[in-house]
Design brief:
single chain, 469 residues, mainly alpha, Growth Hormone, Chain: A, 3 domains, 17 helices, globular, MFS_trans_sf, MFS_dom
């Protein structure tokens, strides 16, 4: 890997880390914010929900804008929006202003997050896709774990405002480095006449956001898809069905997401595995803290440290598995990783309140290793099968389905725990769910593309009319 590519990867990952850390840091501050603004927990929770919905709704726009304006320019715009939102959130004067400014932050993150995938995939090329996706996996693995720890540390010694203000110097550094390092030709630019699919944007972004909101409401209300969750779920389903009809019929403009992508067996298998993997991963990260707090009575900060092995396992496995998948292909590595994750889930179904602490720690580490071993090769496989012109659309589909899987995982955990006869029974039920998810992953893995092949020919979709299989 040449020096410039290493710098490009480092700069892109620094910017990508901003959104992930800020999102997970703020999640632990709901109670603090409710007290600071003398409001309810549900109202304070919208500081996180608004951020998440803004991210989800912005991703489809990013899909179009990256080729219209260029990756470097859009990346810099995303950093400016995110930093502006961070400054404003740190200076918020009431809960309404904080929710609004967190939503602005979410717009910035909705630009940056999918661009991480797009810029890295295009910079690396098909033959190094697994290696680069593995490096990105370090951020994806550690972000959800380190965020709560960092948030707890900030709240223990500083005002809640610093959770947002600390992002400002990091964002400024990331902006300066990006101006110097990212090449102006980081993307394949579209002609100026290519029009935005406005109707598709109005259907797809809000549709996904509504479904994510429904799942978030289910988790918050401890009821699975009932009551307040049914309205946004129904609205989201109608919008997404409307988008599917629109995308298949549109002629005068290119759809934001070309549904013909799903005619590629390898692409469909990759995004399915990553969506289900996101579900299992976030179910684990949501259930483990509850186990430590209820069964062992640890505080928030200690609990954050105890779940760190799950992120550490993923951070170790993903770069190694990604690099190896570029040489031998994805299937064998992904199958081995899913098997390890399934075995770890089975072990967790035997853990009780009197289990020695070392066993859940080792189980979490093994779960992280397993998920990392199938995630990086799967992402690498996806980018080896996509024609270059479809990288932006493929990245958006991957990111949105992974977000959807995460939201569904949290909602399912809340439902399992609520309906269980006790905390330990519920905890074991969550990991039976994780085992079932790994069984599905194992069943889908044979559909991944085989050994690495030659890169797709630029413009293949345009000439053939279909993505490569």
């Amino acid at each position: 890997m040449d020096r410039h590519l290493r710098w490009t990867i480092a700069v892109v990952l620094l910017g990508g880390l901003l959104g992930i850390l800020n999102s997970t840091m703020a999640a632990v501050a709901t109670d603090t914010l409710a007290k600071a603004f003398d409001t309810s927990l549900s109202t304070a929770g919208w500081t996180s929900t608004g951020f998440l919905l803004a991210v989800t709704a912005t991703i489809p726009f990013t899909t179009w804008a990256v080729d219209r304006f260029g990756g470097k320019r859009l990346w810099l715009i995303g950093l400016v929006v995110f930093v502006a939102g961070s400054i404003a959130a740190g200076l918020a004067w009431n809960v309404g202003s904080l929710i609004a400014f967190r939503t602005l932050q979410g717009v910035g993150a909705g630009i940056l997050d999918p661009l991480v995938l797009i810029l890295l995939a295009r910079a690396a090329g098909p033959h190094r896709a697994g290696q680069v996706m593995g490096l990105m996996g370090v951020v994806l693995s550690l972000g959800p774990v380190l965020g709560p720890i960092a948030g707890g540390a900030v709240l223990a010694g500083l005002s809640w405002r610093w959770m947002f203000l600390l992002s400002v110097p990091v964002g400024v550094i990331a902006y300066g480095l990006a101006r110097r390092v990212l090449p102006n030709a980081a993307t394949t630019r579209q002609p100026a006449g290519v029009r935005l699919d406005v109707l598709g944007l109005a259907l797809l972004g809000p549709g996904f956001a509504a479904v994510v909101l429904a799942l978030s409401e289910s988790a918050e209300q401890n009821t699975f898809l009932a009551g307040p969750a049914l309205v946004p779920l129904t609205a989201g389903a109608v919008l997404l069905i409307g988008y599917a009809v629109h995308a298949l019929r549109v002629r005068r403009t290119a759809p934001l997401i070309d549904l013909r992508l799903f005619t590629s067996r390898g692409f469909t298998a990759s995004v399915t595995i990553m969506g289900i993997g996101g579900l299992a991963n976030f179910a684990t990260l949501f259930a483990l803290p509850l186990y430590y707090q209820h069964a062992h009575e640890y505080g928030v900060f200690a609990t954050g440290l105890l779940i760190a092995p799950a992120g550490l396992g993923g951070a170790i496995a993903m770069p190694l598995a990604g690099r190896l998948s570029d040489q031998i292909g994805a299937r064998g590595l992904a199958a081995a990783g899913a098997a390890v994750a399934a075995a770890s889930g089975l072990a967790f179904t035997r853990i009780g309140a009197d289990t020695a602490l070392i066993w859940p720690i080792l189980g979490a580490f093994a779960m992280g290793l397993g998920i990392g071993c199938f995630s990086a090769p799967t992402m690498g496989s996806l980018y080896r099968t996509l024609p270059p012109a479809m990288v932006a659309q493929g990245s958006s589909v991957l990111y949105m389905l992974n977000q959807l899987g995460a939201a569904l995982g949290v909602a399912l955990v809340a439902f399992v725990l609520q309906t269980a006869s006790g905390p330990i029974t519920g905890f074991r039920g969550v990991f039976w769910l994780a085992v079932a998810m790994m069984a599905i992953v194992l069943a889908v893995i044979p559909l991944l593309s085989g050994r690495p092949e030659k890169p797709a020919v630029p413009g293949e979709l345009a000439t053939s009319g279909r993505p490569s299989r």
